[in-house]
Automatic annotation (TrEMBL):
Bilayer disposition of the protein: Multi-pass membrane protein
Protein name in UniProt: Decaprenyl-phosphate phosphoribosyltransferase
Domain of life: Bacteria
GO cellular component, one term: membrane
The species this protein was found in: Prevotella brunnea
């Protein structure tokens, strides 16, 4: 059972809470129907993502066996066979689709988005992840698809700013993760991924800086846009930009100074500073838009 959980990686399911962003930024946190639909989609996306984790580990089996850390994964260590891996993958896909039956409406549309996400990530595992820049763009776009699914399930329209910010932020985190691969390549002389040789520290550092800067500017423009001011009846949302800036700076510090940006999920779950920043951002945003 432990090996099963290690294979489907439930700790990574936190990424799928991106689905709830339309509810948060759409001012619908006090609407039970929207929250119910959002959590159903989070669960469905979690299952479909786990199926991709299974496929990825099957495809990378030989490379993982040579990796100092990944060699301990269930498939690479032999704890779970390849056949069992495929069966678990299929089970996760079925669970994902069955979960969507609990949606009161728009289930077919959401299923279409999730199916497209699944196909895109199969292509990523097989081909796309071998190409530098394309690999991180596909990962970032996967989070945009989560956003679309959340918007469809809850009936909340997505602001162009939210879509842009999500893509840019995930691109930033993906480049930071690739930085860890480059550091390992520089230390061992071997590329952890086939495309790692197409990255170096100079390029990665500049990419991180650019994406962080554009993300911050995009968020500031979002908070000051006329439609957002009219929708929330306040022009004070720009104050939350401080937390966005602090969060980006802290993550850059973890990546560049601490050299521990290999797993964004672990960073978020373990770093108290980032957790406080997220909490401060959320509370400040809620106080401003809900006038608590």
């Amino acid at each position: 059972m432990i090996d099963l959980f290690r294979l489907i990686r439930p700790k990574q399911w936190i990424k799928n809470t991106i689905v709830l962003l339309p509810i948060f930024f759409g001012g619908a946190l006090l609407k039970p129907d929207a929250l119910y639909a959002g959590f159903i989609v989070v669960l469905s996306f979690s299952f479909i993502a786990s199926s991709i984790y299974c496929l990825n580990d099957i495809i990378d089996l030989k490379d993982d066996k040579r990796h100092p850390v990944k060699c301990k994964r269930p498939l690479a260590s032999g704890a779970i066979s390849v056949v069992q891996g495929y069966l678990i993958m299929l089970s996760m896909v079925i669970l994902s689709m069955l979960t969507l039956l609990l949606l009161p409406e728009h289930g077919a549309e959401v299923a279409g988005v999730i199916f497209f996400y699944w196909i895109l990530n199969i292509a990523y595992c097989l081909v796309l992840k071998q190409h530098a820049i394309i690999d991180v763009c596909v990962i970032a776009f996967g989070f945009v698809l989560r956003l679309f699914a959340g918007g469809l399930a809850t009936g909340i329209g997505l602001s162009k700013w939210i879509v842009l910010m999500t893509f840019l932020l995930m691109l930033f985190l993906s480049f930071a993760k690739r930085r860890d691969d480059v550091l390992r390549m520089n230390e061992t002389g071997k590329a952890p991924r086939k495309n790692t040789s197409r990255y170096n520290l100079t390029f990665i550092n500049q990419a991180i800086t650019i994406t962080a800067s554009v993300t911050l500017v995009c968020y500031i423009m979002y908070t000051m846009s006329p439609e957002v001011v009219a929708n929330f009846h306040t022009d004070k949302l720009y104050l939350t930009s401080v937390f966005v800036l602090l969060g980006l700076l802290r993550y850059i510090q973890i990546a560049v100074v601490d050299k521990k940006s290999g797993d964004p999920t672990k960073v978020i779950l373990r770093d108290r500073f980032i957790q406080l920043i997220v909490l401060g951002f959320g509370l400040t945003f809620l106080i401003i838009i809900y006038q608590l």
